[in-house]
Amino acid sequence: MAKEHDNPHAQHGDRRVEELRQKYGDMADMTTDELKQRAQQQGVKEPWSKSKEELLRALSG
Fold this sequence. Notes:
Blueprint: H1 8-24, H2 32-41, H3 52-60
């Protein structure tokens, strides 16, 4: 069975998560559903149709 670190897609995902953490801080560790709920509470339009990064941008800006 292959280990996660042997998977190039997993390595790319790890780098992407780290990039998001550097850019958006602790919010990057939240799930997409948690971000959607927070966005809805803060009045972001149509949070349920947005990607995780779109939500992070909306909540940090």
